[in-house]
Every structure is written in structure tokens, then in C-alpha cells.
From TrEMBL:
<comment type="similarity">
    <text>Belongs to the 2-oxoacid dehydrogenase family.</text>
</comment>
<keyword id="KW-0816">Tricarboxylic acid cycle</keyword>
<comment type="function">
    <text>E2 component of the 2-oxoglutarate dehydrogenase (OGDH) complex which catalyzes the second step in the conversion of 2-oxoglutarate to succinyl-CoA and CO(2).</text>
</comment>
<dbReference type="InterPro" id="IPR011053">
    <property type="entry name" value="Single_hybrid_motif"/>
</dbReference>
<dbReference type="InterPro" id="IPR000089">
    <property type="entry name" value="Biotin_lipoyl"/>
</dbReference>
<feature type="region of interest" description="Disordered">
    <location>
        <begin position="261"/>
        <end position="283"/>
    </location>
</feature>
<dbReference type="InterPro" id="IPR001078">
    <property type="entry name" value="2-oxoacid_DH_actylTfrase"/>
</dbReference>
<dbReference type="InterPro" id="IPR006255">
    <property type="entry name" value="SucB"/>
</dbReference>
<dbReference type="InterPro" id="IPR036625">
    <property type="entry name" value="E3-bd_dom_sf"/>
</dbReference>
<dbReference type="Pfam" id="PF02817">
    <property type="entry name" value="E3_binding"/>
</dbReference>
<protein>
    <recommendedName>
        <fullName>Dihydrolipoyllysine-residue succinyltransferase component of 2-oxoglutarate dehydrogenase complex</fullName>
        <ecNumber>2.3.1.61</ecNumber>
    </recommendedName>
</protein>
<feature type="compositionally biased region" description="Low complexity">
    <location>
        <begin position="82"/>
        <end position="96"/>
    </location>
</feature>
<dbReference type="InterPro" id="IPR023213">
    <property type="entry name" value="CAT-like_dom_sf"/>
</dbReference>
<dbReference type="InterPro" id="IPR050537">
    <property type="entry name" value="2-oxoacid_dehydrogenase"/>
</dbReference>
<feature type="region of interest" description="Disordered">
    <location>
        <begin position="82"/>
        <end position="103"/>
    </location>
</feature>
<dbReference type="Pfam" id="PF00198">
    <property type="entry name" value="2-oxoacid_dh"/>
</dbReference>
<keyword id="KW-0450">Lipoyl</keyword>
Amino acid sequence: MTIEVRVPTLGESVSEATVATWFKKPGDIVAQDEMLCELETDKVTVEVPAPAAGRLAEIVAPEGATVGVNALLAQIAAGAEAATAQPTQQPAPKAAPKAEEGKMTDVMVPTLGESVTEATVSTWFKKVGDAVAVDEMLCELETDKVSVEVPSPVAGVLTEILAPEGSTVDAKARLAVVAEGAAAAAPAPAAPAATAAAPAPAATPAARADVEDAPAAKKAMAEAGLTAAEVTGTGRDGRIMKEDVARAVAGKAEAAPAVASAVPAPAAPPRAPVPAEDAAREERVKMTRLRATIARRLKDAQNTAAMLTTYNEVDMSGIMDLRNAYKDAFEKKHGVKMGFMSFFVKACCHALKEVPEVNAEIDGGDVVYKNYVHMGVAVGTPSGLVVPVVRDADQMGFAAIEKKIAELGVRARDGKLSMAEMQGGSFTISNGGVYGSLMSSPILNPPQSGILGMHKIQDRPVVVNGQIVIRPMMYLALSYDHRIVDGKGAVTFLVRVKEALEDPRRLLMDL
């Protein structure tokens, strides 16, 4: 029986790849899931495993060939055909009894989520030689959106760390190797343990003589005028990949003398010189991927949207009286406390129906109006601000909203949010009041067109029916994209929110 080996799914918007390296040749015996070849796209490198055990009968796409998704790469002879070829295969040396007792299992990068292609290894909880249990946390990865814990797939001993702390790994990279079974009882050798976490040294010229660089890398080197000696390869056996060439080109550009061209404007102003006695008391820490992404997205929002903020204030006594009257019964029935957020979510949902452009977004030359409300709720975490989304909030009751917000808040602070839980929001609420903020101008969460800022509740004198009284007041701020939302619509939205909060009965009557 002949089994076809085809190009796997390469990812969104990637339609073709280049066959970089074949690890097997025709006639070789292959095991199921053993790596046959490596494909290189313009974004990632993809390894192609054998779909079944057998003999590699034919290679259809040689190294350097460009192939599309689902294209035929090779054919494997399985069953009786593979058995007849077995005598021609060089017999494998017999392993020592102890080596046979344990099976080596790769620890791979888990699914990172849609649109996330790489992560940074932030912390290893285990070191080489440590015994690990099934599902015990080995390390933590940090993406530009969430932190991901990597559990051990088997019980055994951590024999090798392939991605040390601080390294960047792609979505299909190997992180470590665990020896399972009886091998777990034996301590790891001292020499490998000492070097496992260290990055592999660059291949020497003699060692690189037999290494075939990726075809795309060769082309990139020729275009950039670089030789293989000027590029450090990070692929298998020091093989040069396309991204290695890109790094070498970037490094060469940074090292070029300033007189070669006019000095470009720096992305950020250079830091002024610091006295030595002050520098000794400073600490420089690399910005986390999450913080860097927050900074980039906020600056993009300022640069892209025509952002404007309108303000109002709301008398919170109506909500507070309602909470005091029903909070015990509410918690007893629904198992969750009645907070302020559910009132604000419901008030915004009502206002968004009247002013739909605040719930819309710009897509090129179109305006996309959304007939649903996916409410983003900004949550502060130890690593930065994240915005989990309460989907279809307009169809939920007060209890369901409170439960969902509480659940998402806990998951956010624990770094357990999935990508799906932070995508697709149509409007956002940010509560700076929990930190004591009296008034602020929130920044839009692109591509959304509106964000409501809540603030501290403070007793202030106000005039009610011609009398000066003390009431619990809160300032509200609506930041909106003036490209799509007019001033009238923004003010109307905020007034409707104010009316619904000051008289919560309007929410029940859908007024």
C-alpha cells in the first residue's frame, strides 16, 4: 500500500512554501511521525512528519521546490512493500538495556491562539535532571497577549532544555525533552545537564561544509550581498534560515557608519546622560511582550483615530439604594455579589442601540455596524492591562453579567485567559475608579469606536429641586472616534447612560 505525504496547512494567508531540507532519502525506513522534511514559508518553518511507518519510496518535491498547500511531497510504501525493503536498511545498533527502558518525549509549544506565531520563554520552573510528574508545570511562555504555562506531557526526568529563558520560539518549536518510564529513576548525566540550557554554539566552518542552507536563505544572502560566514545559522546543525539573513542584514544596517546617509529621526528621543551615582541605583529591565504590545496599540490608536472625549457626571444614589435593598437576596439566589459593572454594562447596551455608530468600526472605506454587543471590560493585572470580552452582553441578565465578569477577572489576574476571550469586542468599559481616579480620558481600544471611563464615587454637593444636597457622584468619560461618531451622537450616548444609571427602572422598562 502506498501512502501519500502532502503539504500540511501552512497558516492563515500562507499559500505556498519552499522545500528546505529532506531528512530522509528514497529507500530509508521511516517511523510514524518521524520528521521527513522541512518546509520554509515567509513566516515560519514547518516540519512534515511521516503519516505512517514504512519505506520512503519516492520524493516528488525535491529541495528548493516551491509547493502549495496539500501538494504531493513524497510517497511511503507501507505494509508488505516496506517489509521487503527492510533487509536493505542498515541495522540499528543495539541500545544498552537502560537506554531501552526510557522513552524520550518532546515538550512542544502548546497552541498559542489565533494570529499568535511566537512566544518568549519567560521562566523555567524545573532544571535539567529534575524529576517531573504528568501535567506538572515545566515553564511559562509569554506572548504579546497572554501568559501560557507548559505542562509535562509525561512523568520522568527533564533531560534537556532546548529553549532557555529569554529565547523566542515559534508556535511549533520544541522546548525540552523528558525521559519517561524507568529512565526517570536514573539521574541525568552531569555533563549534559550543565550545557543543556546553554544555546548551541555556532557551527565551525568545517562542520558547516556539509550543511545545506535553506534555499530562501541563499536567495536572501545573494540579494543582500552577504556570505554564509557573515550569517549565524539557527537551523538544524547551524543551517542558515531566511530569518537569520534578515537579522544579519538588520545588524549590518545598525553597524553602518552614520556618515553613509543622513541621520534618520529616532523612534524615541535618546535618554539624557545619567550621573554615575544615579546609574548605580537604577535597574534596567527588558519590556515584556505584553507591555510592548500595550504601548504599541495605544500609540497606534492615538495616531490612527480622530479621538475626542466628552464628559458627564452621574448621581449614583439610585443604583446604591437598589443594591442595598436587594444585594443579599441577589447573592443568595444567584451566588454572586451585585456590583456596579452589571448596571454600567446594561446601560451601555441600551445606549448603543440608540446610537449604533458608537458600536461600529471603520473597515477601509466602509462602516461596519454590529447588531450585537460584545462588551470589553478592562482588567488590570500584575503584567499589564488586558481586555476580556463579555460576548452578547446585550442578551444577558444582571446575574449572568456579574458571573462572567468575575470569572474573566480571576482568569485575567492568573494569566489564564485564552485568545478567544480577548478578541472581537465591539465596545469597552474601563473602571479607573477602583484605583481612585477622579477623572481621566480613556484611550480607544482599536478598531472599536468608543470606550467608557468610570471613575471614583465621591460625595459632592449638587442642586436637586432647588436644594443643595450631598450625593454620591461619579464622572463619566466617553472617548470616541470622531471619524465615525459625531459630537451629537457621542453626547446623546453619554446622556442615555446617565439617565439609565440615575433611574435603574429605565433598564427594566427598556427606556
